[in-house]
Amino acid sequence: MKICSKCRCAKLIDEFSFSSKIRGIRQSRCKVCCRAEHREYYRKNKARKRLYNEAYRKTNLWRYAAASSKYRASKLRATPTWLTDTQLALMQRMYENRPDGYHVDHIVPLQGDFVSGLHVPWNLQYLLASENYSKRNRLNDHPGSATITEG
Hints:
There is one protein chain. The chain is an alpha+beta fold. It has helices at residues 31-44, 46-59, 61-75, 85-96, 129-135; strands spanning 2-3, 10-11, 18-20, 25-26, 102-106, 124-128. Helices cover 41% and strands 13% of the residues. Strands 1-2 form a two-stranded antiparallel ribbon. The protein has a two-stranded antiparallel ribbon with strand order 3-4. A two-stranded antiparallel sheet has the order 5-6.
């Protein structure tokens, strides 16, 4: 049994979260009081939290773009398991250093009609957003792209 420092009720030890799981130390407040405190804090600071989240998203847009692209690529099973950590880091840096007004584009589309590319560093390029929108999901004759003909 342990006494909560907030509600002063005696409760079972399992009703207290760990503050240090390694050392087996529990928090001084019970889970119910902690949850209530977090809800109250959120309610009082909702607008401030929203502004913080918006500012964080704007300054870290590359993180969201990289995560979104990685999700789509893994969903399409286009990221090979044999990529090294260095190659994965290189792709991450491409998204981080993307110039304004540009997209990180797959030279050979991940879902092409006749050929499908991989989500690998050598299949990525910077492309103007307007060009990327017009390119859609096909191979085009533009700098840095491969031309594949039927035959």
